[in-house]
Design goal:
heterodimer, A: alpha+beta, 5-stranded antiparallel β-sheet, 15 strands, 50% helix, B: alpha+beta, Beta-Lactamase, 5 helices, transport (chain B), cytoplasmic vesicle (chain B), protein transport (chain B)
Amino acid sequence: MALKIVKGSIDRMFDKNLQDLVRGIRNHKEDEAKYISTCIDEIKQELKQDNIAVKANAVCKLTYLQMLGYDVSWAAFNIVEVMSSSKFTYKRIGYLAASQCFHEGTDVIMLTTNQIRKDLSSPNQYDTGVALTGLSCFVTPDLARDLANDIMTLMSHTKPYIRKKAVLIMYKVFLKYPESLRPAFPRLKEKLEDPDPGVQSAAVNVICELARRNPKNYLSLAPLFFKLMTSSTNNWVLIKIIKLFGALTPLEPRLGKKLIEPLTNLIHSTSAMSLLYECVNTVIAVLISLSSGMPNHSASIQLCVQKLRILIEDSDQNLKYLGLLAMSKILKTHPKSVQSHKDLILQCLDDKDESIRLRALDLLYGMVSKKNLMEIVKKLMLHVDKAEGTTYRDELLTKIIDICSQSNYQYITNFEWYISILVELTRLEGTRHGHLIASQMLDVAIRVKAIRVFAVAQMAMLLDNAHLLTGNMQRNGICEVLYAAAWICGEFSEHLEDPMQTLEAMLRPKVATLPGHIQAVYVQNAAKLFSTVLRKHEGSTDSQAAQETSQLLIERLPLFVQSANLEVQERASCILQLVKYIQKLQQKDVEVAEEVSALFAGELNPVAPKAQKKVPVPDGLDLDAWINEPPSESESEDEKPKAVFAKEEPKHSRPRHTEVDEKELARRREARKQEQANNPFYIKSSPSSQKVYQDAPGVEHIPVVQIDLSVPLKVPGLPMSDQYLKLEEERRQKEKADKKKKEKKKKREKHGKGKRADSGPESEEDITPAHHVDIVTEEMPENALPSDDDDKDPNDPHKALDIDLDNLLSGTNYRPLADSEKLPVRTHRSEALKSPVEEGDGEQIPQETKKRSSKEKKEKKKDKDKDRKKSKEEKKKKKKHKHDVDEDEPVELPSEEPVQLEDTSEVAAPPTSTSAEASDLDFWLSSAPVAPPTKEATTPDPAPSSGPETSLAAAPDSEADEPKDVEPEEAKSSKHKKKKQKKEKEKDEKKEKKKKRHHHHHHHGDGGGEDSVQNGTMEEEEPLPPMSNYCLLAENSYIKMVYDIQGNLQDGSQVVVSVIFENKSDSFLKSMEFNVLDSLNSKLQRPDGAGPHDGLVVPFQLPPGVSNEARFVFSVQSIVMPQKLKGTLTFIVKSEDSSTHEKLDFKLHFTCTSYLITTPCYSDAYAKLLESGDLKSSSLRLEGVNMPFHHLLARICFHHHFSVVERIDSCASMYSRSIQGHHVCLLVKTADQTVSIDAKCDEPSLLGNVLDEIKQTFSQC
Amino acid sequence: MIKAILIFNNHGKPRLSKFYEHYTEDTEQQIIRETFHLVSKRDENVCNFLEGGMLIGGSDNKLIYRHYATLYFVFCVDSSESELGILDLIQVFVETLDKCFENVCELDLIFHVDKVHNILAEMVMGGMVLETNMNEIITQVDAQNKMEKSETFIFQSPRQDR
């Protein structure tokens, strides 16, 4: 054995280490590949040895070679071996290698599960760390499933170093194993408040990543993030949170309002540009989300634009770039504020930095007007000429077309100019966007009737010069233009000056080299032209020309008949036969023009791109049902007809074209680039080649020396767009002059969507189009369904993580983790006992609650939010409802027996309300108007309510009696659902009410009765300790008095004091008389006729050891302050032989709590209440409270007469009402033995006192 | 998310490549080449952001890079990362390297790519930023190196004195 080790060591003397390998490679520059292959052979030898050090060294070298592009997956097993070494040094090498080359397809990965688990639980934190780091790179669904639980445990590791890594890796686990999200989420959330900033930052990171994809599920975390945002000083965390808020605000406008102030403060205060920028970005997002509802945020917009201008003007290109980027976001909603910086943006177009130019281009879109369109486009055309690299040029091209065609050619006043721009663009060499230009040409020619004459002339020109476009088949992207040209010439051939010449151009042999679908169009349109020629010549005496044309066709068409493309072949042979027949007739001098042109009679109308989709399904047609039984074999593989005719509809063809062509072209370009890059003989062409336009036919085969001219040569006959610029200016001048004379006699016609043009600045109104432009609107089918279909990518891995987390483990309406949702735990015997916290949760929850799916709940929330508007109606209902409750409420009158406790213990408190997190969020959001002293604050109310109301005003009123037929099916069903839910909800609530009737309990001190009745404690948690509200009033050797004070809801000025008298002595106690010294504020109610200082007789006697209760009614005036009343009890102690008169003094303490009455409150009413804005707030912080949250809540409920409105996790909202109708609202949160209570009440001093009393309560325990 | 971190020199030779999504070796090399091509042709005083190459991800991605002497540090990130934040992170990375290698130069990276990986692992994990505090990073790296040393000392090795 020893020998072996020594031998191994000696062997290693001759091994290369990584440094040697690198050095070797550097020394063998000429035959690097050969050298490396010998090295790999050596490595293979080394891997065969038993010595782990040798193996690790080999693996280390492999990692390096992997970086150089060598596939090292063959060594995967050896990597696993090195990973499992007990030494950190080797383990680290192994994990690094694994992280570089393992992936889901690596099969040995499944061997690692146990090793990783072992490392994760290693006592050495760096073993764990290395394993986590490695795992983060190669985690597979299997590993994620098997290790999720171990990693979860690590999230609570004592070392922050491990905690932060464990937290971070959870994101990867979620991605691979979405089922783990729900069970792990509570702990993840907990980590947001981890004491270590690194862990906190990791948790923020993960949640931001999650929330970015499915923001709505994380809305309820907004208060927590808000707190972090205002407390954190770590810029990295702040940036993440602020970015997250940017994603959340669109979902909750009120959040935006709350954010604006702190963000504005940050903008003013921070020195970090990165933070400033993100703040501005989020403020923009807020403004966008608010833009519908809030009119007055111009100050914020101004601030943003102003800050962005500073960024753009900065000499740092990075800031410039980002400034433009953010500016483009503002542009969408507040174009006016951006337009004022036009100078700056146009200036950026000339920047030497391409990224900046691209960003400026984006902004141009919003800068154009009728006035400056030509100018801007001219500038862009100059850039097109100068541009290097096709990407930027293509970008310019699409931008030009976008800008011009936006909102239905709104800004184009002269379509001749636009056509010539398009024609000029065809000269772009190597562009991918030929089809884009083509579809624009078609669109304009079809929809603007006035331009057809001009367009046809231009297209004829293009066809004549087709060889210039098709010179290089590699760059045939542009030849798509010919498709459009041919079609336009054919379809509108009546406008052609010389159809014969065009026909000739379309039948040149060179055409056969064009792509099939273009040839097909050529052939078809040649036939159209033919018919035009016939018609032209038949009227005249010159029948010779017509016959010549037929002859030409007969000569040229056979070329197409031989085409390999079926479409071309078929059309060509049809038309050839037709022409032959016509020729025969012509020779007999028969007039055929009429018949021939009948072939192409009628005009095509433009059809909207989605028209086909929007044709409504007729009644009674089930598209999903089989008409015939499906054939067993799939026949779909048969060739699909290429639908060439369909392509003749301009708009239709575009999107599909784009997709296919772009992908294919991109692929080809890639391949080509690759090939070129590897080919040393390839000389890259200068980008400005082919800029020269030549007109001499037949010279294309002569190699032409490319002349780089900054100004493209003019092609005779081809118009230059520039000339239009001048013409247009002249025309406008003239028009202005005319106008003065004519005094607005002209009425400008607007068509279709063009009406939007009104929004332009006033001066634009003066600019009239050069032609009478008739922009034909696109046709849509009747009854078209309004629908927008923005489907998500079904392959998005984040889709699986769209999981509702709000109702997870929360107090009220939670969907417990189903068995299937638990994280798999190792089935080891030892582990079986140590099941995680999540295990066992929810097992005892009745099925019923489980059924409340997250969806249902969300809908309810939505429902609630949306319906706020019509909540008046609801409110009425609720009032009624409340009345019911009130009537049922046990009216505790001073009398009778204490309530039995047995019944109460059975009540497993049911959910109070359904939308827990919603109202929690509402609570938090509602404080917005109170806190910031904004201008609007003068009016107390509208801020909070108006946001959602206005933005949701358009939402369908789900209370509507019958869903209208027009509405889509989905909406209908969801409505029904909502209704049902509402009913259910109401039912539930009623049930609860009945059960809840116990809220004031009358305990015997020794009763030991369990009082977990309070709403909000539904988990099967440890039972509450016995609690009693009765506190000691006074005691001596004979008697003990305990008392409790309850408000009387019936009468706002009365409280009931229940006193339990307990006979401690062996004697009989009788003639007890209860008396207090009244104060101005509180008076004992005495029977009529009794004097103000008379005592009240206790209506019973007490045998030894017996206790009984008596009640006394007090009237109070002000309830905002606590108060103490002095009093005396006098009684007679009667023993067998003697009787003595005894007296006991006491102090009756009227706490403010005693004026509160437990009143249930629905979350929505609660939210409304908070929104009303007339509550004052206050807060309280309790340290070192060491009790479960539900105990804490129970205590507050019990001792202070609150009810839980909702509870989520470690956060609950509570409500109570004073006998005089003050509302008291609490939001109780707990974390790490610290309880924070935010409270609101319309009576501040009452609130203050209640809080003091709560504090008192907890200081006692 | 950070999709990839690349370091290459002025001639496009890779000095470190860390991909947080799996690609084949060939694709990786192609990405490095393409990225180099994109980055190297840019002037010194243009912005450090680059709309992504075709190969990694889609339009959501950006290349954020810095050029130090002979080396390019390129981070490919998606839109959830703050552009300026990543620039700072690159700075932190380079400063950390500088501290760990004591005046780092390209040769350090060439011969000790494994160490660079270890340092990076303390900053970025699985594509997410783990730590941005340089002192914390250095502490952890040093602790691990110390551990490695103690192991070599105890267990071996004749090679050490070479």
